[in-house]
Amino acid sequence: MALSQKEQDIQLMLAAQVHLGTKNLNYQMERYVYRRRNDGIYVINLEKTYEKLQMAARVIVAIENCQDVVVQSARPYGQRAVFKFAQYLGCKSLAGRHTPGTFTNQVQKHFEEPRLLILTDPRTDHQPIKESSYVNIPTIAFCDTDSPMNHVDIAIPANNKGKHAIGVLYYLLARMVLEMRGAVSAAQPWDVMVDLFFYREPEETREGGEDEADDAFQSALPAPVGATETWAEIPPADAAYGAAEGFEAAGGFEAAVAPAAPAMGFVDANAFGQEF
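The structure assignment produced for this chain is given below.
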């Protein structure tokens, strides 16, 4: 029996460990916790996570201009997912350190005035949450079991510390938004892989870049000239180091002896054409 789209999404979240929280529990996150394991880790109810993802997608679709949506992540594991999310939905992305005053200081060069703010971690992204509360910007955030929920309007309960969990969450949210817009349907599924939303280690990126650079360098080398049968043969000495055309070998070099240099500190008296 084929699984429904919701069951497939929940299986994907289970594989990415979206349901695993922390050993601490915020009192406002108690409603989203399914149970507590023997090792003290709280397990998040993925049914409520899926419902909150759908609610957040409806809010994003309700905004007409996609550029009025800002998605932000100061956590390194979420920066690649933020870029991909903004690329496929057409919204703005702010990855890395948040510049204070981005939402409140109009004189600032990178001032933004969004209608909706999407964050990866309320604890790491505390500065944009604080500024959004000053200017009444609705905020959507992925909240772990220990995340503070102050000034968060829509909290999506999930593991926001794993790189696979963050990538899967942004992937599902982007796909739900595209489905509600009508760009993706069951007959025309989204052909984007979830792997594109995962964080990549710098070593992996560097190794891939070196391989591509080596291939490009090899393809840029000029082709050898001459018969292919004689590439491995050693050329004769005369052919390799012979005299250039139009010049003949000068003889008598072996018999010629260089004149002896004068001793240091003494000069020949006749060198100047007069006697001293």
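Interim note for the steering committee: The longest strand covers residues 69-73. The longest helix spans residues 163-181.
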